[in-house]
Amino acid sequence: MIHLSQAAASEIVRIKSKQQPNVLFRLAVKPGGCSGFFYDMSFDEAIKVGDRIFDFDELQVIVDAQSLNQINGLTVDYSEDLMGGGFRFHNPQAIATCTCGNSFSISN
């Protein structure tokens, strides 16, 4: 299960409406970043075999099975400050995070 704050969902819907309104929002984990893994957010036109679909009012979030193992329980928030806006991630699976907030490591 993943969770989106209302602010995060609203921002994703806003960005999506500027792209293609009929695409799906995909959240994945990719190797790399300061701590070993990073969150990858993109838009996709297709649901793939093994994908999990999470419904949030007017938004569907697609997560592949392998990524879900690394982010189960993840909460995504969005906030703005004087430096601009950005997504914030709270991942209970992470044993360490980078100060950038987008990279994390998990135990094997």
TrEMBL record:
PROSITE patterns cross-referenced by the UniProt entry: HESB (PS01152)
Source organism, top-level taxon: Bacteria
Cross-referenced InterPro entries: ATAP, ATAP_core_dom, FeS_cluster_insertion_CS, HesB-like_dom_sf
Location of the Core domain: 2-102
Pfam hit, one: Fe-S_biosyn
Cross-referenced NCBIfam families: iron-sulfur cluster assembly accessory protein
Protein's recorded name: Iron-sulfur cluster assembly accessory protein
Species annotation: Nostoc punctiforme FACHB-252
Taxon lineage: Bacteria, Bacillati, Cyanobacteriota, Cyanophyceae, Nostocales
